[in-house]
Protein 1
Amino acid sequence: MDDAADAPSLGGGRHRRPRADRGAARRSGGRRHSRGARRPCDQAARRRLERGLDELGRGRSAGEHLVGLGHRRIGIVDAGPGTLYNAARVDGFRSALTNAGLDLPTSRIVHGDWSRDAAGEAVLPVLAGADRPTALFACSESMAFGIYDAAASLGLRIPQDLSVVGFDDLPEAQWATPPMTTVQQPTAEMGSVALRILLDLIRDRRAPRGRPRGVTRIELATHFVVRGSTAPPEA
């Protein structure tokens, strides 16, 4: 019995693939991992990095700021499902409202898909409603600028009619009209965190089987920058 199988060669002819390769393919269900596929270690790195940035605390700080100003009808513009850090920001924000005895109804949760245009379009009906929120937190500044656009189109003043909190503290935030209150992303420190987590992963992969693997937990300080886009709600 032949120990190989026909397979295409680079030259257009056939070459023989060892039976061991065919057995491995059968055991894996015939699936192959492409070079661009996300490997388990990549997913682990992403989860560790997202946890280490304490997105929960950053989202909570935005909620606490708005609650502290006296807002009671508060909403959020997030990116929608799909990223752990977006979900963590929403959960942290919600926890601040819950601790203050406030709800975050689904009618005040808007999905902006990380886009200024998408956020502005999605938030329009919420701001046009009779029971509109007096304050909104956006999980990125691009989406916060979408809120600015929607408010302007409806004749709502920021912060007199609507307080807005962004996330990132990009240079554009301080140039906005009015300058945007925001949760600052420590981008330089994030690079250091990413490198440390990568080194931890390399160490874990080299560790002998059975040895407990460490879990990286790095929390960066939260800096909340108060500017002109937030104020107590008007009576």
Protein 2
Amino acid sequence: MRGPAYLIVAEQGGILTPQDIADSVLFLCSSQASNITGAALVADGGFVLG
């Protein structure tokens, strides 16, 4: 049974933290993401690639 998403050990060797998700949200809210439209940003540390 899998635990909460923030405790999943990612394939790239780390445990996702609430800060990882917050950093992703801050990026999407920034001007650096002004050209991103209609895309899903997967913040899972590469877990789905494994």
